[in-house]
């Protein structure tokens, strides 16, 4: 008998009528012959209300008490949903996180799941009951109530689907699926039929609010197909699965992260260990650092730029103060009127020119790009906040995201392909029953025989990046990593990119022509560099990965030239000589997490 997990978000259980509607959906599934587990969030905005209440009682509430308080929201809904099911003539039992055996670590307000015991749920299902489980909560070793972080009910649902080996995991919400970008920001956004785990992981961590990003980590690790659909209609929504919708479209989604801040540390001595000191001081304060760009300046000094959430800016500057004192930098600048625009697409790696298309779209809308980072399936650009909406629209239009790609596949076509034996890449990770949410790495690799080209003194105005990468593309040069960051000197920026070593001469020629036509300060080429990559799942939410990478390289006296991070990869560009040492060092450090 098939098992289905149905998750209902806060808006789907916001009032009595909606609770009844959710109950009816579960009963219908049961009458169709499924075993049904429901996962329910707190009603409407109840979690927000509880948070406000706590603030009224006093500042800085203890984290443990906060979780005790917030978990009550879900407890109210599960009881009411179970009552509604019983009133409609079926049998249901509500269970708290503790009662479903959801064991977590003790990091209150952002606990990670260790294990789930399924016996009780299975026994109740065998008795013909619908199980109504509280989302978002668990218990630690000492039976303290913990919560998984805002939006965590999604993660409860997917985790339950994984351990119960459910046939389907349906996420009922107030939107009817996943869109190419947030439809509240851009009404022309298109609902997609299918999106891959990798794409959804990136989009969720960029702030696409449909799904909690840790739930996608789970889904990918355990191969759980997720169906995101509306709780107010019966239309099919979006399937989140291994496969992607199109085999050719370079971009599947765009996202805007509105409230970012840029920090630049100027004149950092360009010797190993400096970035480590900077970033570990920030990491210690549990502040997530996002776009990281290191500019190799003239004269042995580097400028290190990165972004943090705007709310974290003050804390970041405070954390930096002692470090910049200690290492003797030239200064720190910041800008908290910036937003990040990103495009994500699983076909990107074999699509030259995606970056230049994005930059052209931004240039066409008169948007100035302040920073750029690229990684395997994502390109991000930092832009002025007052241009962020224009920028998002321009990029969405530029990639024609409102149109369905010609080769788009539906979920039923993908299922047919699977049945016909079309291979899908499945993750071979070592899944430990006692550490369900532990870091999972899939590999550590080195791409050697690369070269770096840096353009210095790139004028800070719209259209330059577009022109650069169009000309490089036109010369048939394939570019891997691109970073652009603040240069400090005159408000200009510098842009670095990597190319295969044998394309260095040709790249330098093009770069010199570009530099001459835009009056740039100069061009630098470095042969013999390598890119080391740590790949895995949820690397940005497991923030220590980047820190460990820096630590490992610094302790081996290896200087980092360029950095990029995503949910799937952390990349560092270093000198070729150091590649073997770096790889061995990283393999040792991450031995316990390699699948
Ligand atoms: N009630 C929690 C929140 O509002 C968990 C959830 O809804 O997923 O964040
Ligand atoms: Mg939610």
TrEMBL record:
Q: Which GO terms describe its cellular component?
A: cytosol
* Highest taxon above the source species: Bacteria
**ACT domain residues:** 263-334, 343-429, 453-534
Name the catalysed reactions: L-aspartate + ATP = 4-phospho-L-aspartate + ADP
EC identifiers of the protein:
2.7.2.4
UniProt keywords (A-Z) are:
Amino-acid biosynthesis, ATP-binding, Kinase, Lysine biosynthesis, Nucleotide-binding, Repeat, Transferase
For this entry, list what GO says about its biological process. Answer: homoserine biosynthetic process; lysine biosynthetic process via diaminopimelate; threonine biosynthetic process
Pfam families per the record? Answer: AA_kinase (PF00696), ACT_9 (PF22468)
Q: Which molecular function terms from Gene Ontology are attached?
A: aspartate kinase activity; ATP binding
Q: Which pathway does the record list?
A: Amino-acid biosynthesis; L-threonine biosynthesis; L-threonine from L-aspartate: step 1/5; Amino-acid biosynthesis; L-methionine biosynthesis via de novo pathway; L-homoserine from L-aspartate: step 1/3; Amino-acid biosynthesis; L-lysine biosynthesis via DAP pathway; (S)-tetrahydrodipicolinate from L-aspartate: step 1/4
Per the record, the gene is lysC
Enzyme class of the recorded protein, top EC level:
transferase
- Family of this protein: Belongs to the aspartokinase family.
- The entry's protein name is aspartate kinase
Keyword Amino-acid biosynthesis appears in the UniProt entry: yes
